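Hey L., structure's done. Input below.
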Amino acid sequence: MALAPFNFWPIAIPCIAVLFYKLQHQTVKQALVKAGVFGFAMFFAGVSWVYISIHEHGFIPAPLALLATALAVALVCCVRVCARTPMRVRAWAWARALACQ
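Output:
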């Protein structure tokens, strides 16, 4: 609701405050997952224009346009999570997250 379609920006402040509160006593893996899901949802809500561009102007079927939009948003979220995580924590967290347990 804070981004493009609704432009109700004050709601972003308490949402981020709740996210930080929820991340206080989490492991690195849990924090990465929760922050990643939060970032994906927040960014996905603001890129409806990408879906419209792909579907309406690119003449791509709706399921494929939705998939392409979701993949683009997931890629941006992964890049942002990796860019904001220190290198040691990043390598450790990815190794632990990908390890078969």
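The mean pLDDT is 81. The chain is about 75% helix and 0% strand.

-- N.
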